[in-house]
Each structure stands twice: as C-alpha cells, then as structure tokens.
Amino acid sequence: MKFFVDTADVAEIDDLAATGLVDGVTTNPSLVAKSGRSFVEVVREICGLVDGPVSAEVTALEAEAMVAEGRALADLAANVCVKLPLTFDGLKACRQLRRANIPVNVTLCFSAAQALLAAKAGASFVSPFIGRLDDQGQDGMQLIADISEIYAQYPRLETEVLVASVRHPMHVVEAAKLGADVATLPPSVLRQLIKHPLTDKGLDAFLADWAKTGQSIL
Ligand code: E4P
Question: Tell me: the pLDDT tens digits for 2-26?
Fold first, then answer.
C-alpha cells in the first residue's frame, strides 16, 4: 500500500519524507487556505520534496476552465497530479487531461457508482472520502470494499483506489486488508501509525539495562 500525506504544510512533508514512507502528497483548497501560503509556491515546493504524485486541485467548475487550470498546474512540475471534483464537468475534464497524458485524481467520491464513472473517464486515482461518510453514520470502509470488488471485475481499468478522509490508524489497517492501492494520511495519523506504547516501554527498559553495563557502542 502506498502512503500519501494529506497536507499543504511543507515543513511536515519534509520531516515525514525523511522516513522514506511518503509516496506522494494530496492537497485540497481547504488545506492550502490553512497553510496561509500561495498555492503555486506551495505546489512547486512540495513537488521538489517528493518524487511521487502531488495532487493539486482545480477550482473552476466548467470543464474547459478545469482543463485550462489543470494544464497550468501540470506545468508547475513533472509530478503534479491534477485533482478534479467528481462532477459531470469534472469527468469531462478528466477525459481530456488524460488524453494529454496528464495524471488525474478524481476527488470527492462518495459512491461506488461514482468510482466506476471515474475509472471509465480514465482517472489515474479515485478518492473515496471514508471519514466524511463515517461522520454522517454511513460505512466509509464498505465503500472501499465495493469499489475494490467492482474494479477487480475489470482488470483493464487502471484507476488506483486512493483512500481519503482518513481519520485514524484503523482506517489504514482496514483499507490495507481490502488491498486499497493508496491511503492519504493526515500527518498526525502517519505519526500515530508509527507509535505503540509497548515500543516506548520496551525501549525504556532496554536503555535502562544498557546503562547498567557501562558500555558504549562508539
Ligand atoms: C483527499 O485528497 C482530501 O484532501 C482529504 O482526505 C479530505 O479529508 P477530510 O475529510 O479530513 O477533509
């Protein structure tokens, strides 16, 4: 399973990328607003920090304008992946950008039917938002299961399932059990995945015993 980080915070991405665990980045207009920085500058900087795809979202609503924005974003760096909303115009723009060989992440997916359409439009990634479904009493993970089952019926589809709106480590574990291609994680969730209280406790005990030996490795 690939891990993307879901943030426009360049310092966080730089820090997490040093672990070698970061395969890409997703941003959205809300995350860019939270960063308080210029969208173009942030996208360029992030693209310099990671080799993998960096999703940058258009804000136009009409297909031709989405394509124009998408082309401008793709010109910023070779690893930009244009993010388009799952709307009628978004799917039209997806088809056009993919014909130009520009990678596309179709976002704001909330149903299996929508995911099927994104794949038919040639999306490189589809982003089902599982946390937002859970938030309103629906089963976000069931959506990942349904999409995975449908895509498996059509091996020629190349769209990767990018699990989005991830809230906690068990979302990641359950999505991995379903074979999802990618999960995009808020930095806090990636840090939570690394931590376990027994790891900390065990390390404390090892170091206390080591100190008693009076030795040093270097
Ligand atoms: C994905 O690309 C989105 O940026 C993101 O996962 C949305 O998550 P949220 O529901 O926590 O805003």
Answer: 999 999 999 999 999 999 999 999 9
Pocket test for ligand 1, best of 3, 6, 43 (most atoms within 8 A of CB): 6
Q: Which amino acid is at 53?
A: P
> Which residue's CA is minimally distant from atom 7 of ligand 1?
165
CATH class of 2-213: alpha beta
Burial environment of residue 143 by CB neighbours within 10 A (0 to 12, 13 to 18, 19 or more): buried
CA distance 17 to 38: 22
- The string of DSSP letters for 123-166 reads -SEEEEBHHHHHHTTS-HHHHHHHHHHHHHT-TT--PEEEEBS-
Best residue among 4, 28, 81, 188 to mutate for probing ligand 1's pocket (most ligand atoms within 8 Å of CB) is: 28
pLDDT, one tens digit per residue, over 64-89 is 999 999 999 999 999 999 999 999 99
For the chain, the domains span: 2-213
